[in-house]
Amino acid sequence: MRTTKRAAVLAIAISLATLPAMAGKPLPPRDWQEVTPAASVTGVDGQSYSPSCSALPGTDPSFRFWHRPGRSDKLVVYFEGGGACWDDLTCSFPIGSGLPSPAPQFYAPAIPPGSTPAGIGGMFDTTRADNPVRDWNLVYIPYCSGDIHTGSTTKNYFNAGNPYLPAQYEIRHRGFDNFMAVLAWMKSELPKPNQILVTGVSAGGYGATANFPWVERSYGSARVSLLADASQGVTTEAFDNGPVGRNSWNPQLAPWVFGAAPTMLPGNQLMRAVALAHPRSKVAQFTTALDEVQIGFYGVMKQFYGPGGSCPNPAVDWNQQMLAALSADAGLPNYRHYLAAGSYHTLLRDDHYYDEASAGVPFAGWLGQMLANQGGTGGAGGKWFDAACPGCLTPLPCE
Length: 399
Description:
By secondary structure, the protein is α/β, with parallel strands linked by helices. It has eleven helices and 13 strands. The chain has helices spanning 2-7, 88-92, 175-189, 203-218, 237-241, 255-258, 270-277, 292-304, 314-329, 352-355, 363-371; strands spanning 33-35, 41-42, 48-49, 65-68, 74-79, 137-141, 153-158, 168-173, 195-201, 223-229, 283-288, 335-340, 387-388.
């Protein structure tokens, strides 16, 4: 199986994605506004934070984010994807390093100069009449810290073979600091949205899940929902709990949701914890049945921070664990999943957002039903339901 062979490769780059649909007249494009926070920001919790990109040698450490005004009192908070790094190997090989293939690429270390979200498709396309968030306000949180938007530390690493890096270097894992700077701005400039969708793709899907409790607590009067795209949380115990792995980032996970020792919570239980702690919020996940990038990262964890699941094949092992988590969470009244056919990674930023229908219902329409509040805030009843491609809920046999 070609997907299985590709799963063992270390060269990985996380992509971004697109969003759903409803009928209506298309709206003209609106301009994105760039915001650069101060070097030190007081968060909604009263603590001081220092927003920054990774500061990998040779990169620009400055952090900025974007806002696009809408024509409604609704708000999308979007967390960008872009890989992750947590040890000497993964942090030594960033995306865009300039090294020839097959050099691995694990994370985005900086915000590309001159970049903006302008021109991104999917959920950001206001010209599509079938986009259910086309008239919403949008806050776009870029990703440049290698820590799935959860870190608050600076860590030393040793070069694992990148000729463009010194023998030893620092990485600023400040994804949580960046988020808290954005949230402080949101509270000041967007004080009273009626409805909020917290979402993101890949690493950003984890960021959306991990930071959802802060958004929900900060906007208690709003109806707040969560959608994580291509971030199923299939990890290994050693990656989650060991000193090297998730704990390399000093992850800041809300203790009132994730527990007094949140770093001990397995990756595939983060979404469940959010759903249980917010019974009046709708929470959801999208993934393909054999997502190549998720499988690739899991293969790295399995190889260096194993053993992982019982099947030695990383693709099959990931598929089995992903489906087990979907099954366990399916009983939660406010949780739904959309399981699509194929192996592509993320859909919120491209035409998959509109074209995906392998689960028997168009994804955009499925998301539209979620946001339309069919069946009540908690999701029980209505037209919002679990959707899966034919045969995709059957785990692959170990081979």
